[in-house]
Amino acid sequence: MKIIDEKGKLFGKINVLDFLAILFLIYLTPVFYFGYKIFIKKQTTPAVTAVPIEPVKIELELIFDFRNLDAKTLGVISVGDKEIDEKGQVIGEILRLEEPAFQTHKVNVGGKIRVKKDRELKHMLATLRVKPIYRLSRVYYKDKQIDYDSPINFITDKYTLEAIFISPVKSTPLKFKFPFVVERYID
Fold first, then answer.
1. Do 82 and 150 share a structural domain?
2. Domain that holds residue 34
3. CB 107 within 8 A of CB 113
4. Which of 20, 116, 123, 156 sits 20 to 30 Å CA-CA off 75?
5. Measuring CA to CA, which residue among 75, 147, 64, 68 is closest to residue 105?
6. Residue 51 falls within a domain, yes or no?
C-alpha cells in the first residue's frame, strides 16, 4: 500500500490538500484560543489586603469651643490646665482662653428661626495643644476622630468639658486640608 496513490489520496482515504488544511487548523486552534484570551482579557482589580499602618503621634495647636459652661466651671478653667492619659503623659493643654460669651440656641417659632441667649450657660474659645494620633489620613484624639464641628471631651483632675473643634491655629507649622493632611510629625 502506497502512502499517496495515483488519485492524490493519502492512504487511499483523504485528499492530501484536505489533510494539510485539517492539520493547519489543528495547529492554528491554540493560536486563536490564546490570542482571544489575551485580547479579551477582563480587567480585574487586584485583591486589596488590609495593611496595618502604624499610628504616628503628632502635636497640634487647635482651636476648640468649650460649651455648656456654668459659673462654677468657668471659675476653675485656667491657662495651663492639662489632660493626662493613663500612662501619665500630657495629651492636652490649654494655651489660651478667650472671654466667655452667652451660649445661644436656635429656636423655631412659627416657622421663623430665632436665636435665644442662654442666661445660665456660656461658651468660650480655647486654644489647645493636643497630642493626637495620626493614622490612615485621619487625626484621632483618645480614639475619637477630630473633625470640624465634632465634640471631644477635655478631662482634667478638676473638670470635664465638651470641646467642639473649630479650626487649626493659623501660625501652626502644619498645613491642613480637610480631612487633615499632616506634613510634619513629632516623636
1. yes
2. 9-39
3. yes
4. 116
5. 68
6. no
b/e map of 111-122 (b: 16 or more CB within 10 Å)?
A: eeeeeeeeeebb
Q: Verify that 158 and 89 share a domain, yes or no.
A: yes
User: Within its chain, how far is the Cα of 130 from the centroid?
Assistant: 20
Q: How far apart are CA 4 and CA 11, in angstroms?
A: 6
Position of cell 495643644? 129
On whether the CB atoms of residues 70 and 134 are closer than 8 A, the answer is no
- Whether residue 136 sits in one domain with residue 75: yes
Q: Determine the Cα–Cα distance for residues 116 and 77; give it in Å rounded to an integer.
A: 25
* Shared-domain flag, residues 81 and 159: yes
Give the span between the Cα atoms of 173 and 10, in whole angstroms: 89
pLDDT digits (tens, 9 = 90+) for 9-23: 777 788 888 888 888
pLDDT computed for residue 175 by the predictor: 46
What domain count does the chain have?
Answer: 2
Rounded to whole angstroms, what are the CA distances from 165 to 25, 63, 95, 127, 136? 73, 6, 15, 10, 20
Query: What confidence tens digit (pLDDT) does each residue in 44-84 have?
Result: 666 555 555 677 888 888 899 998 898 898 899 999 999 99
Distance CA 65, CA 88 (A): 25
87 and 22 share a domain? Answer: no
